[in-house]
Specification:
about 200 residues, alpha/beta
Length: about 200
């Protein structure tokens, strides 16, 4: 299994002008690595809908790569999204399923089917042309350039160690810039950044 840092740090190093939609347990860790207007924290009351949002952005802006850092519990809540993405076939969407087996920010309750659900197989069945699965940090880091360059939609199932991130507060106490203001206010930041074209 990877540590969350082993998942996110290589991605942050390779990131250029991609939109990055992060949710739940990876929201704070990503915000510690990146402070970009094209980051979006989908970690409030719409649990399970980060992949939907990322799909919408990918379809609206086919000129820009969109990376979604989704959780295993969040993905299970909206499995139909995989079929929708398969039908829409956005070549610019890379969907990570960060699988820690737990609903981390609400108390580390176990996710149904933890350790048994094969998100890579589900993505293949839904029509994803590019599918990857990683449980080793070195193999992941070596393969990440290929993953990000793959014709999408791409699903990346990554097994990570459980962490201890707590609930998101959306306040000045949060370290990550995109968590210090409301979801609606940050959505305006993202919209403006996308309207400006490539950055």
């Amino acid at each position: 299994m990877l540590r969350v840092s082993e998942l996110l740090e290589p991605l942050a190093r390779l990131r250029s002008d991609e939109v990055v939609v992060a949710t739940m347990s990876v929201t704070r860790p990503w915000g510690r690595l990146s402070s970009h207007d094209l980051d979006f924290a989908s970690a409030d009351s719409a649990m399970g809908h980060a992949a939907d949002l990322a799909l919408g952005v990918a379809l609206a802006r086919p000129d820009r790569r969109v990376v979604c850092l989704n959780g295993d519990g969040s993905m299970l809540m909206t499995l139909g999204t995989l079929a929708t993405i398969g039908d829409a076939h956005p070549a610019n969407l890379t969907l990570f399923v960060v699988d820690n087996g737990a609903f981390e920010i609400t108390g580390n309750q176990p996710v149904a089917g933890a350790g048994r659900v094969d998100f890579a197989a589900l993505a293949r069945a839904a029509g994803f042309p590019s599918v990857f699965r990683f449980d080793d940090a070195e193999a992941y880091a070596c393969s990440l350039p290929e993953v990000l360059a793959a014709d999408g939609p791409t699903l990346v199932h990554v097994l990570v160690e459980p962490g201890s991130e707590g609930p998101i507060s959306r306040s000045a106490a949060e370290e990550a810039r995109y968590l210090r203001i409301s979801l609606a206010d940050w959505a305006r930041v993202l919209k403006a950044a996308l309207a400006d074209g490539p950055v």
